[in-house]
Amino acid sequence: MTQPQANIGVVGLAVMGSNLARNLASREGNTVAVFNRSYEKTETLITDHPEAGFIATSTYDEFAAALQKPRTAIIMVQAGRGTDAVIDALTTVFEPGDIIVDGGNALFTDTIRREAAVRATGINFVGAGISGGEEGALNGPSIMPGGSAEAWETLGPILRSIAAVADGEPCVTHVGTDGAGHFVKMIHNGIEYADMQLIAEAYDLLRRVGGLEPAEIAEIFAEWNRGELESYLIEITAEVLKQVDATTGKPLVDVILDQAGAKGTGAWTVQSALDLGVPVSGIAEAVFARSLSSKPAQRLAARDLPGAVDAWEVSDRAAFVEDVRRALYASKIIAYSQGFDAIVAGAEQYDWDIRKGEIAKIWRAGCIIRAQFLNRITEAYADDPELVALVTAPYFADAVAGALPSWRRVVSGAALAGIPTPTFASSLSYYDGLRADRLPAALVQGQRDFFGAHTYERVDREGTFHTLWSGDRSEISAADAH
User: Fold this and answer.
1) Which active-site residues does the annotation give?
2) d(C-alpha 35, C-alpha 17), whole Å
3) Residue 105, SS3?
């Protein structure tokens, strides 16, 4: 039988799993056991990377025997039944105190269910969000583990050894118990949807209104990346827009089909926010924009419908570009503010002790939404841990105030010109709703009481009330109504 030598194991050796295993093996103090359902992938990995010193195993029994106690294994397989199958197999060969980590993009409620089931066996189960894609898995991702404090004692040093580093700090923290890690990773992905859509809308405006070519817009994005918009997504956008198609000689962006794919985490974010009663309108519109893009038959049928009512003529291109930049930054602030609202609500609902500033810190490197202004988010929560909305923090409130005229010009101009800007517009509408002294929800409550006797509260006295809308239409207290 294989002698226990490895302090960490990886199950599932597709690209993400292989890269994570290589990252682990490259760090001092780690010896990595690997297992894949198809042994050919295991052979390929150890043949291609002999320097890693992997311990190859062909059965779950061999895999368990190769691991030091408490055994620790990271699962990198397809979410769903595949994950459940691997968990079932590992629980038969692991012992109480051992640790199973799901590093895939699992729905957090599935993680809560799995953690409870595995905990009943005495084995620790950790749902860990891992962000950064293939490159991050290999060179240093942002990692968001949940699970028990006991599991974190063993797992923490291992994950710190492979995480991305920002300002000397590893981009990993113990997020909270059971499904907290996968919940935060889900919100991260939702913010990512919004961020990408906002950038796409900015590009569309610069091209359709500003008359700029992709290569010119690439230079603008590269310039923006040297300022307050500095981020991984802005950086790669400039690279994408520079690319020329080798076959046609056209800008690559012009030959890519305009139908955006999605893998589910954006939709999960919106669905979870609805359940929690948290408005994430910018994220939702980004998800819906992808859905709309993927309806070619409907788009074709609607192509000749009436559009613009006012041409948008740009007399000062530099001023227009600056307006778009400021609108993008303000909308980005709203996307993050809404995302952190969802994190706060999730923490309250599921009794997770999530430290918002720590989440912002571990997103500063390794992950897809890494950006300069995450330092500002960390500072905002350090100054006020009970901050009710990120956008109300002094730095962000001032930033939005400075961008507001540009933001309004961009959204109104796009509406008149018939150019869709769903995330720009919904983010501005959310901002206006948030700051409003009074909303038309009072009328909605009156309507609800009229057709369903749902009752309402008053601004001038305590209690709940119902109007007798038939007859004399007098008002009675809800208690009297029953």
Assistant:
1) 185, 192
2) 10
3) coil
